[in-house]
Amino acid sequence: MSYNINALSELSEQFEKLPGIGRKTAQRLAFYVLGMSAEDAQRFAETIVRAHREIKRCKVCQNLSDTEVCSVCADEGRDRSTICVVEDPRDVFAFERTKEYFGTYHILGGLISPIDGIGPDKLYIKELLARLNNSEVKEIIMATSPTVEGEATAMYVSRLIKPLGIKVTRLAYGIPVGGVLEYADEVTLYRALEGRSEL
């Protein structure tokens, strides 16, 4: 006869649904939650429900926001002549951490992947094109992942934009800082050569 507590098992199963969480980690998290005070557990649950209810997509760039227009799009100090196109809201956080990019963003909401049944119509491409009616935009930076899907998406979007007379650029990819050349694959080395800059 196996030892089982239904509520604990269900809590553990919910944690296990999170990305990167295995069975043992899920169990640890479940026991941690059980060790919380009733007030802390209630606040934790309410925070999840509130975030799910209040966070929506920005009506301009499709980023996550708790207001109709996100803080980046609302910031008058941002350079509106440049839009950095990314696949996911997490990519915006990565760019913002650099404190080097001052333009705006557009989130596609994924990448074109026929194998997974994701076509261009399932991404926020129409919304991007609608933003380009504004002649203020001079450059689109395609910052999708350097994968087959990322490259295909970047090429598809750039083909739609180029006829509008807007410059389309692609992020340079190459050797990471501290990387060793002999361990780099051919594509990474090719990208590093292609994206080289003058010293």
Structure overview:
Belongs to the RecR family. Keywords: DNA damage, DNA recombination, DNA repair, Metal-binding, Zinc, Zinc-finger. With 199 residues, the chain is an alpha/beta fold. The chain has two domains: 6-54, Helicase, Ruva Protein, domain 3; 78-193, Dna Topoisomerase Vi A Subunit, Chain: A, domain 2, CATH 3.40.1360.10. It has eight helices and six strands, in the order αααββαβαβαβαβα. The protein has helices spanning 6-16, 23-34, 38-54, 71-74, 89-98, 125-131, 148-161, 186-194; strands spanning 56-57, 64-65, 79-86, 103-107, 139-142, 167-170. Helix 1 (6-16) crosses helix 2 (23-34).
Keywords:
6 strands; 199 residues; Helicase, Ruva Protein, domain 3; alpha/beta; two-stranded antiparallel ribbon; 42% helix; single chain; four-stranded parallel beta sheet
